[in-house]
Structure formats: structure tokens, C-alpha cells
Amino acid sequence: MTLRVVIADDEDLIRAGLRIIIDSEPDLAVVGEAADGAAVISVVREHRPDVVLMDVRMPAVDGIQATRRLAALPEPPKVVVVTTFENDDYVYEALRAGASGFLLKRTRPDDLVQAVRTVAGGDSLLFPSAIRALAARHGATRPSAGIERLTAREGDVLRLMARGLSNGEIAADLVVSTETVKTHVGNVLAKLEARDRTQAVIAAYESGFVSPR
């Protein structure tokens, strides 16, 4: 199956470079481009991509607003923010808006294509230290009723998710099966009404359940 990708960036050179990298892979294909966040919705509706590579700083409609609009669609694509600086507050706001993770524009081509495959497969791109640093600047600002509904074990799983551990690593840490961890992760996402692991980790930091410091 070919994974369909849309690129949203206001720089022609960046879009061209990303297209070359993506189209060089047999299982990936760029199906559309947008030079501004305002155009992303129509491009996505026309081409129905699996993943959108989204620049955060664009004129008229930035990547944050565009990501929020995409997340409101009936069948939204996964969004990966592409940015120059990992400590940019725009990145954090885009993650809050529904992005599944972010990549730096200096990312190696191999890592870029793997990131597309990762988010298309339902996983998130977690960079614990970067997200923790961003969360620390914002502080605990959003109490979450969903956090209070977590069981003790689900809370343990969420804390390990915030450290960036995979399901297999969480299973080893808690001495349980990977399938058990998958069940706990699913319960955590459901109770927090989170689309993916990134959204769950953001909720953990913003509620104060996990300290970013």
C-alpha cells in the first residue's frame, strides 16, 4: 500500500526537497502541495492523504490553525510538524492542536521517511526532552478529568509514555506482556480523549500529572 503525503510549506525549495525525498520511496507518494495553511484543507479534501508534513510558520494561516482545522475533519490525516527550531512555542501549540509529532528541517532523509511511516501506522513521534522543555515553559494549565479516571497501572503507563518508551520497553519495565501494555495505552487514550500518544503526554504535562522539570 502506498502512503499518500501532502506537503504544506511556503518555501518552494523546501517543498521541492521534501517531494524528492518522499517520492524516492516505493511505498510513499506526494499527492499534493500547499504553499499556505489556508490552502491545506482543500488540498487534503481533494487528495485524502495519510500524512501531512506541515510547516508551522506560514503567512495568512499558520500551521497551528491549519492543524486544528484538519483535526476537526471527519477523517483527519496525521500531521507531522516540520520546523527549524525544536524549542519553538509554535511547535508546542501545533502538538496541542493535534499534530502527532514534529521533525526538524535538518532531519536526515531516512529519518523523515521513517517518521511518515511511523505516524501513518498509528504511532506518534515523541521527543521526550524537547516536549518536556516546551511543557515546562507553559506549566500546568489544564486540569483533566480524564486523568482522575486512570487506574494506578494506567497512570504508570502514562508516565512511561511521557519518557518516550515504546510499548515493548514499557512492558519490560512493568514486567507485563506487550499486549497488556497496548490495552492500557488504549484505555489511557480513551479516558483522556487523546488522538494519540503525543496528545496523551501533552495532557499529562498540562494537568500536572507528570512534571516536566
What does this structure look like?
The protein is of the alpha/beta class and 213 residues long. It contains eleven helices and five strands; from the N terminus they run E-H-E-H-E-H-E-H-E-H-H-H-H-H-H-H. It has two domains: 3-125, Response regulator (Rossmann fold), CATH 3.40.50; 141-206, Arc Repressor Mutant, subunit A, CATH 1.10.10.10. It has a five-stranded parallel beta sheet, sandwiched between helices. It is globular and about 50 Å long. The chain starts with a strand and ends in a 7-residue tail after the last helix.
The quaternary state of the protein chains shown equals single chain
| Total number of helices | 11
The ordered string of helix (H) and strand (E) elements is EHEHEHEHEHHHHHHH
Could you name the CATH topology of the largest domain? Rossmann fold
- Could you tell me how far the N terminus lies from the C terminus, measured between alpha carbons in angstroms? 42 Å
Main beta sheet strand tally, sense and closure: 5 strands, parallel
Can you tell me the overall shape? globular
Structural class: alpha/beta
Rg, Cα atoms, Å: 17 Å
Which CATH first-tier class of the largest domain would you pick? Answer: Alpha Beta
Strand order of the largest sheet: 2-1-3-4-5
| Second-tier CATH architecture of the largest domain | 3-Layer(aba) Sandwich
Beta-strand residue fraction: 5-15%
| Domains (count) | 2
Number of strands: 5
Mean pLDDT, all residues: 88
Fourth-level CATH superfamily of the largest domain: Response regulator
Low-confidence stretches: none
